UniProtKB/TrEMBL annotation:
Keywords: Cell membrane, Membrane, Transmembrane, Transmembrane helix, Transport. It is found in: Cell membrane. This is Biotin transporter. The keyword Transmembrane helix applies. Gene3D superfamilies: 1.10.1760.20. It comes from Bacillus pumilus (strain SAFR-032).
Length: 188
């Protein structure tokens, strides 16, 4: 693995941790907060190679498990994985990996395509793992946990849209820089 790859993984891990500094939105009827850290997951999947995306999210979860209060609301430690949002957290690496794999198969990266990939992977994979885990921890039916989770969909769609725009802009900027380097010009 190249130094550049390791730096990109570390940067995305740090971005996800920094998004945890933004306080969560707590809801009265569910213990799972609304956070911006899923946006970091989307960006990692959108900007990193599949192996990098997977390692970046695994590294983030490892640091959180070690006790670093990087989750929104200054939460950290192994106990967060045994709470109602534990299933969502454990699905982060799989979602980032799937996003990255899917994007690598695209001939052309567009905002609309990224939005669809981000929405399907973030809502599909995270909810598929998170809802049953939440139901088990809260000792409720899966259908009841699924109904509680409907409140998160509009926010997840907004995050998917914003991250799709950002990802396209960042990819374009990185491609422009690579063209300049390849032409022998000094990259900005």
């Amino acid at each position: 693995m190249r130094i550049q790859d390791m730096m990109q993984m570390a940067l995305m891990t740090a971005v996800i941790g920094m998004l945890g500094l933004i306080p969560p939105i707590l809801l009265t009827f569910t213990p799972v907060p609304i956070t911006l850290q899923t946006a970091g997951l989307l960006l990692a999947g959108g900007l990193l190679k599949p192996k990098q995306a997977l390692i970046s999210l695994l590294l983030f979860l490892l640091v959180v498990a070690a006790g670093a209060p990087l989750l929104s609301g200054a939460r950290g430690g192994i106990g967060v994985f045994f709470g109602p949002s534990g299933g969502f957290l454990l699905a982060y690496p799989a979602a980032a990996l799937m996003i990255s794999l899917w994007i690598n198969r695209l001939q052309k990266v567009t905002t609309l395509r990224l939005f669809v990939i981000f929405a399907i992977c973030s809502i599909g994979i995270l909810y598929l793992c998170g809802i049953p885990f939440q139901a088990m921890i809260m000792n409720i039916k899966v259908t009841q946990a699924a109904l509680l989770s409907l409140i998160y969909i509009p926010g997840d769609l907004i995050k998917a849209g914003i991250c799709a725009v950002l990802t396209v802009k960042i990819i374009a900027a990185m491609s422009y820089r690579k063209r300049d380097v390849n032409k022998g010009r000094r990259a900005v």
